[in-house]
Each structure stands twice: as structure tokens, then as C-alpha cells.
Design goal:
The complex is a heterodimer of chains A (363) and B (316). Chain A is built from 9 helices and 20 strands. Chain A is of the alpha+beta class. In chain A, helix 2 crosses helix 3 and helix 3 crosses helix 4. Chain A is elongated, with a radius of gyration of 25 Å. The longest helix of chain B is centred in the first third of the chain and has 38 residues. Chain B is flat and about 75 Å long. The chains are: A alpha+beta (363), B mainly alpha (316). Chains A and B meet through strand 6 and helix 2 of A and helix 8, helix 9 and helix 14 of B.
Chain lengths: 363, 316
Amino acid sequence: MAQVLLKALNKKYDEVHAVKDVNLQIRDKEFVVLVGPSGCGKTTTLRMVAGLEEITAGEIMIGDRVVNDLPPKDRDIAMVFQNYALYPHMTVYDNMAFGLKMRKFPKAEIAQRVQEAAEILGIHELLKRKPRQLSGGQRQRVAVGRAIVRHPQVFLFDEPLSNLDAKLRVQMRVELKRLHERLETTAIYVTHDQVEAMTLGDRVVVMKDGWVQQVGEPLELYSKPANRFVAGFIGSPAMNFADVTMNETNGAVWAESHGFRIKVPADRTDRLRPYKGQHLTLGVRPEDIHPVGGADSADRSFDAVVDVVEPLGSEILLDVKVGPTSMVARVDPSVRVKVHDPIRLALAPERLHFFDLKTELAI
Amino acid sequence: MGGSGRPPSPPLGARDAPAKPWRPSRRSRDIQLAYLLLSPAVLLLLSVLAYPVGWGVWTSLTDLSPLKSGAAEFVGLENYRRLAGDPEFWRAATITIAYAVVTTLAKLGLGIGFALLLARPFRGRALVFLAIFLPWAYPASVSVIGWYWTLNPPISTAYSVAMGNVKYLVDGMLGGGAWSFLSVTLFNIWRGSSFIGVFLLAGINAVPVELFECAVLESKSAWRRFWLVTVPLLKPFLALAIFLSLTTAFADLANVWMLTGGRIVYPIIGTHAYWLAIRGGQFGPASALSLTLVPFLLAVLVLLFRAFDRAERERA
């Protein structure tokens, strides 16, 4: 149990600045997910915590120790790798016992810890098998078991579910979450999958190009993205973006584009008024676009044409065209529309996002 | 192609259709066809392998010799019996085994060192790789001369005097010819460790890097990590490297001949057989001598393939 502190952490390779000034305080027992597209620096950050990469600048603290110069073995961490990293020449038992054996634990204690972990993970009957005799999900459990037996201060997960098929991934995700609630160990988890990040993380760190974009609880990231990148990265289908021009008529602020005109709610007028006459990016989540009758208020509704219909059962995704702009709306499955149908849509004005065109920061 | 009675090929895609009544017979036809297609390769192998080996076996059972007029006579196991009683044979066999074991151990040690050195990136790795690989890539006949002149300098300088002293010192301690046999051993190690190094490097590169990283997380001691992780993971590659090294040493002839200029004081099986056959004209005993290596190599092969095969199956 320990908190992990990253202070102005940097990693530079010859020409690549992979991690830039990352500051992060991971609380004791917290499950923090680093998420971002490939090359964003999330794995490098994790590997620096593990000690597999040297730190170019900055400081890492685990518990109350600065670990910059500690070898990985003495950092009291356990890591789960994407491809499981099980030793093919060892049985499941030996794989799980590996770390303890390397640390010269007494045999009896190794046996007890492995049994305990095997019970937690339900892999008791597999202990005598070799990794090649296991399915992907079982291998991943063994890899997690190998980390558990070490009773580390911090778990490090490097995309542990990426090699599993979709169904198994969902199942293992739930198991990992349950496991974390049971073990109450600080965990840092790296993934490129925003769904995994949202479902697992107590807090989520979104990274891009080596920079931390935003740190927050999952729903906070979803409802209050700090910038356009986070807004587009979190959520599926992704947020719709449109270039709009801000105007003021009779004291009300309007966002205008080809084909639609939306009245900014009164409580946000003051913040957006300074952008009068300027271009901004408007962001709308698919579920904040609803089909409405023709009589709906012109303050928030507009005409569109259905381009693609994707019925998913519990919902329908409608790709629509509004003038030159494409948007995706997530609508009720009872909505009956066909391709090329005209449709009247309304936005939820209180849930609109505005981003500065240049800085891409949320306004 | 023996296709006279075959039904016309079904259209593409129909192959994967659920089992139909004619499928089993089709399968056996496929197997026949497979053998048919393999037959040219099998014939080629038979002609370049089985024939000479068979001829060698036959010769070893006769008194075939260019010095003898008349046809070769079948003498049964006489040639082998004579070998067993020949101290010169036992001497050659002992030297061969010592030569093979010593060079293999040295090559393996150096090769592993080279492979580990080259496994991680550092500035100038390409150059070091080249330097390590060059002894293998360079034609042996040329590098042999280089070695010969290094150890037995053709022009008299202070260096040649020094090397001459070393030679007399070694020969004085171990007997005449020891120096030149040492040079054969060194040459074999020099050339072979280059190959084994590159071979094992390929092996290391085939192992997912996480398996090594995972060990780094658990132990500071590179030595423990090497024995508990690297060696077991490289087992199939090590087995093959050992086998290749042993066979080249057992069957060595050219290097010994070239480095000693044919003045062979320490014969190995290869040189002894050559001596018997070419210089002595005794084809029968020479063939028998060469064939004594076969059971030995076979045993080594079986042992190593056990290790190799098991590891290979576990890899999956």
C-alpha cells in the first residue's frame, strides 16, 4: 500500500521527447488508468515507474521513497505484461512462484502464497500445467497471479487485456475490478482503450504526445473534457465537432454554422460573449442530439438528412448531414427512419461544449 | 501425375464444404499426390546422400585399395577389428573428442558472450556485430593463412622470434606438434564462436523481450537471471549450436590440414582417415574409420533433439 508520486517526469530518447513534465499524485489504494493513443507516452511512463526505463528528468516516489535510482527489484512493484510474459519452460506454479524464488523466499511461504493467489483467481487446477496448455484468459490470470503473490505496494498493468478477444476482455475487466476492490492495492493501468479506462479507473489520466491532457474521474472526463482531444477521445461513438461562428442578437449569444443556429443557454452567455464574431469548435455528444417534431423551438433545432442508419438493438446510431457537416446521433430504437429521409433534430443546449479553435481548450 | 482416375476438381470453395461421401478417398489421394510431389526431392537426396553413404559402408567391409590388383574382396568386419586393436586409432579418437569438447565449450562460452553483448542496443553496435561476424563470413582458406602467418611468421622480425619462442616453449612442454595443434584449436574457436554468437543472437531476438524484463523486475543479479531465464529460454538454440559445433569438430579435416601444412602430429579421425585413404591407399580401413563417427554423432543428435524438441513444444 503506497501512494505514487510523479514529479515533472520526463523521458527523452535520442530524438523523441516521449514523456513531458508529467505530474501525478496516485493515492494509496487508488486505481489509476493511463490512456491515450499509441505513442502518447503512457507505457513509457509506466516503465519508468517499474524501473525498466531510465528517467531523463524528474522524480518518482513510491511510498515515501524516491525510487529513481533503485533497481526494479527493490521498488516493491509487480507488473503484468500485455503478452503475459509467462515462461514456457515452467509450470503455472513455477511461473507464479518465480518472483518469490528469485527473492529467495522460504519454500513453505511460496507455496502458501501461490495457493492463496490461485484460489483468488480460480486457477487452482491449472497449477501443474505449462503455459502452452492454457487459453489466453487463463494465461492472463496466471500473469496476474504472479503479480499478486508478491504482495507489492503497487501493481503495474501494461495493456493486460489487449491480447484477449472482445468477450473475454469484458469479463476479465470485471474480474480485475473485483480483484482491486478485494486487494486494495494501488494500481497503475495502461491501456489505449477508453472503455477500459472509464470502467476500471478510479481516476483516468488522458495522455497525448507525451503530455498529460487531463486527470479526472471517468464521468468528469466525459462531461467536462478539458480540451478538444479529451472530448473526442473519451466516449464512443465520439463527440461530434462543428465549426461555428459566435453572434449576439438581442442580448442572446448564438452559435451559427451552415444549416443550424443554436442559442447558447443564458448561464453560459457571459463566458461566450467575448468570442462574438469569432470561430469556435462546437462539440455535441451523440446522445445529446434528439429527433423532434417540426414545431420544436428554433433556438435549438435544425433540419438534417439521414446518411447512414446503424441499428444496434438498444439504440440506433444515425449518421446525418447538416449542410456540409456530418454528425452522429444516438437515438431511441423506436425511431423509424430510412437513408435519405429528412429529419428534424434538436441539441441539448445545456450540454454543449465549446472549444477554442487555436488552443483547443474548453471554454 | 497419375490423375487418370481422378474426379474433376471441384470448384474453388467447394473444398471447404461440409464432409461429403467422397471426402475420405479424396484425402488418401491427396496423400498419394503429396508423396508423388515429394519424390524428386527424395530421389535427389538418395543420390547425393544415400549412395555415397552406402558406398562408404560397403567399402568399409572390403579390402578395396588402388594398390591392390584385382577386385575388392569382402572381408566382413575385419577392418573394424583392426581399428579396435590399433593404438593410433584410439589416439586419434581421443584427440578428436578432446578437440570437439574443448572447442565446443569455448565457442559456446564466447558465442553466448557475443550474443548477450549484441542483444541490447549501444552506440556502434553495427560495427561490433560486423567484427564478430567477420571470422565466419570470411573464406576459411584465406583466414587460415592469416592465422598461420600470425602464429608462424614467414618474415623474420622481433615478432617472429617471439612467436618462435612461444612455439618451442609449448612444444617443449607438450611435445612436438602441440603448438600447431593449439593453433588449429584456436582457429576453430575463433571462427566458430563468431557463428554461434550470431546464431544465439537470433535466438535471443526470437524470445519476447518481456520475458527478460520480467526477470529484471525480480532480481538484480544478472548471473541468476542468466541461469534461470536466459539459458532455459535459449535451450533449443543452445542444443543446435552444440550439435553444429561438435559435428564441425568431428568432421574437421581441411582446417587441420591447412594450418599444419599436412605435418600432422596430432591426428584427429578426419585427418587419420584421409591419411589412410589418400596417402596409404587403404580405402577399406579409412571408410571404417570414418563410419565410427556415425553412432557417436547419432547419439549426440538424439540427446540434443530431446532437449530441443521438448523446449520447442513448450514454446507453443
